[in-house]
Specification:
6-stranded mixed sheet; 5-stranded antiparallel sheet; signal; Secreted protein; 151 residues; disordered N terminus; 11 strands
């Protein structure tokens, strides 16, 4: 009986310590969305696009269409990925995820996401592994970008 109580206390403490910290509603964890990018042929960046260039990759967010664009710039065996955060309302984390380019060096891929028109996005470019979703090195986070600036 005593062992059961000790286990229950340890399990409750572990659950409390491992709970996500942030602005998510009580009891709701925000799951990461992981996507493999598709061909970037039919997508165009505009003057509203926000971009980050780093040695191992480049990433952009196009707010007029809600897509992330990622280019792999190094032949290093790692994928390039854009990790993103979507905030709504205000500064509350609403969604987050990553768009991977697994096609190799000198290729571009896109992930088309459906963001709320009145939300904000920030992103960073990382060298990462698709199989494990682990990053090895990342750029700093971008400034916040308004989704659909024409709205």
């Amino acid at each position: 009986m005593r062992i059961t109580k000790v286990f229950a206390v340890v399990a409750a403490a572990a659950a409390l310590l491992l709970s996500p910290v942030g602005s998510a509603p009580a009891g709701a964890a925000i799951a990461m969305e992981f996507d493999k990018g598709t061909s970037a042929v039919s997508y165009e960046l505009t003057n509203d696009s926000a971009c980050t260039l780093y040695a191992y990759g480049a990433g952009c967010f196009e707010p007029n269409g809600d897509f992330f664009y990622v280019t792999d710039r190094l032949s290093d065996g790692h994928s390039a990925a854009v990790f993103w955060r979507n905030y709504y309302p205000g500064d509350t984390l609403y969604r987050n995820g990553a768009c991977f380019n697994t096609a190799g060096v000198d290729t571009a891929r896109v992930c088309n996401k459906n963001m709320r028109e009145d939300s904000k996005v920030q992103f960073r470019v990382c060298a990462a592994e698709w199989s494990t979703k682990v990053t090895t090195v990342c750029s700093p986070w971008s400034p916040l970008v308004k989704v659909d600036p024409a709205a």
